[in-house]
Amino acid sequence: KRNLKVYLLGKRRITASSRSNGLLAVKTLSKSPTFARDPRQLQFEVDINRLFLYTSYNRLGKNADEVDAEEIIEIANKASFADQQMQVQENVHSQIKTFCLRMDEILIPNEKMVNDHLKLSQQANSSLHHSGLCSANGRCDPPNNIPAVSKQRPLSQADVSQKLKDKLGYTLNIKPSQISHKNSGQGLFLDGAVDLGAVLAFYPGVVYSPAYYHYVPGYHDEQNPYLIRRYDGTVIDAQPWVCRGDGPERFNGRKMLENKLDNGDDDVVERRNPLAVAHFANHPAKGLLPNVMICPYDFPLTENSMRVYIPNISFGNAEVSLKRFGSFWFKSGISRNSQSQVPTLKTVVLVATRALEDEELLLNYRLCNSKQWPEWYAPVDEEDEMTGKDESSR
């Protein structure tokens, strides 16, 4: 499981031998008693391993080479599952923090404030060796205390999306899917280019812990197509969000809830967020492979300056606590410094599984009950997904 196979950055490969060893390990584990008892746990560990490799390689930047890739694989071989989870959280958080700063630059008139914090971030980042992932502790992240600014530029969603592309190199569009079946409907398309391991989209909506399943609309009768479930049982319903806003609208979290149960969340979220559209990603047609994967992301609610760009609110008391590791907060693992805890919001983001450019984003839905698969659903070969093989390459 640890050596999990081929990973791409642009057109470069992280060795075929690692791929072969990883596939052999997965096949061996699939026959073990542990896998037989809890295959979902094994799948989750494989996913975290992949996300560790993808997001760690992405964090090194465009100057990364195969030596760096081999170093990441070696770290993955030695790191515990809990440590890999922690690093994935930090890698994802680093990207989302950059996204939030870019959104501030677009929407907040006081650009000097943002530029000052970017300068501080660059100064801190320059002190890090670009491949020192095993000791990353959040030092490359900008400070958390960016003051809130209420006045925003009156930009439309389309304007915000285009400006984000100018700054990040990509944005997301919703248009008719290229999947050839009658139920494909709208699809999610990347406009621009990203590298392997890029965080591409947020799954928006109301977050339900298992204790509140009975409040989830359409959960028990499977009539709600906007639901997604994390490995830990957290369910997110995107139905109240549906589409992005088209104007300087901040969406009050309580208005996303039809039920009046006190959820304790008065936060507002920015409806013009161009990346809050993960619920439009389609399942690949037969013969195609996913190019994005689900990544659980536990957003620390202490990050007040970022909160408006996280398109989720909790139903009920669904928050959990993270323990501190260095200057960052993680869901699991042993605290190595302070024993303090902070509340978090359990969310989901989509991560690129290869370099992408101007294409539809496809996500493996992993539907469970084969007797109730819809006509359009074709199971993805997990081995092909990990090696990057689809019918067009055979």
TrEMBL record:
Protein name per its UniProtKB record: Uncharacterized protein C5orf35
CDD domains per record: SET_SETD9 (cd10537)
